[in-house]
Specification:
34% of the residues are buried. This protein has one domain. It is 78% helix and 0% strand. It has helices at residues 2-10, 17-31, 37-49, 52-66, 73-94, 98-107, 115-124, 129-159. By secondary structure, the chain is mainly alpha-helical.
């Protein structure tokens, strides 16, 4: 049970998110085939999506508040700039296809393109909540699929040697 809880919490960590939790689950499954990957995947997606409403409604306000504070200001400014930069990039590339752009931004498993950054960007761009959440959850599912297939191929290649 502890391994499932670890997967859940790894998926909630900013910048690591699903991109760290899926490999953890896959590697643990390779060591212990009784580890249920489907259950782990469901918990990973839930864990990755759990912070989304909080980020959408409060992150921008907290970051704006803290960007000029002595100890936290640098980090808060970094996060705010990353969200603004990601949002502007999305809007420039997407035009009216912002929903699809957000989905792909979250769904392509590269560092810094997960649910946290995508939701912050959606908030900064003033996308409506329902569209943002739907795009992010579909993006998380896409990223999870890509990561799972990639890890299965990688583990299969290593163990097949």
């Amino acid at each position: 049970m502890l391994k499932y809880i670890i997967c859940f919490f790894i998926s909630m960590v900013p910048l690591v998110e699903l991109r760290g939790a899926v490999p953890y689950a896959q590697i643990y499954h390779a060591a212990d085939p009784s580890f249920n990957l489907l259950l782990a995947y469901i918990l990973i997606v839930i864990g990755n999506m759990l912070p989304v409403p909080i980020i959408y409604f409060f992150a921008r306000k907290v970051l704006e508040w803290g960007k000029d504070k002595p100890v936290i200001g640098g980090f808060f400014t970094f996060c705010l700039e990353k969200g603004e930069k990601g949002g502007k990039k999305l809007q420039e590339k997407a035009g009216k296809g912002l929903f699809v752009a957000l989905l792909l931004f979250v769904g392509i498993p590269l560092p810094g393109t997960g649910a946290w950054t995508g939701t912050l960007a959606a908030s900064i761009l003033d996308m409506d909540f329902k569209s943002s959440v739907l795009a992010v959850i579909l993006g998380v599912a896409l990223a999870g699929t890509i990561m799972t297939v990639g890890m299965m191929l990688g583990i299969g290649a290593v163990t097949g040697i």
